[in-house]
Design a protein that fits this description.
Length: 112
């Protein structure tokens, strides 16, 4: 089955850290750029980051640059988003996406 499965969300305090995972199946994960996108309550989709197939190139939105890090393990068909120094404005549902596929989303809530 061709799919992406997001995991690792939850509640974290401001300034805390959290790691999201996205596990791919049914396609050759290592061939494709992978993306993280988020949607905050009541807002539209916002691009967060992307990584190329060999992990040699990463890009980040200005809003997360220096705080978030995207990586991938092609042997495990898994994409990661390491988030640190989290802020309340990072509260959102986070999705991994590629080639028209979307994970189901992982809720990240940043609150004291």
């Amino acid at each position: 089955q061709v799919q992406l499965v997001d995991s690792g969300g939850g509640l974290v305090q401001p300034g805390g850290s959290m790691r999201l995972s996205c596990t791919a199946s049914g396609f050759t994960f290592s061939n494709y750029w992978m993306y993280w996108v988020r949607q905050a309550p009541g807002k539209g989709l916002e691009y967060v980051s992307r990584v190329n197939p060999t992990s040699t190139i990463t890009y980040y939105a200005d809003s997360v640059k220096g705080r978030f890090s995207t990586s991938r393990d092609n042997a495990k068909n898994t994409l990661y988003l390491q988030m640190s120094s989290l802020k309340s404005e990072d509260t959102a549902v986070y999705y991994c996406t590629t080639i028209g596929l979307w994970g189901q989303g992982a809720q990240v809530s940043v609150s004291s």
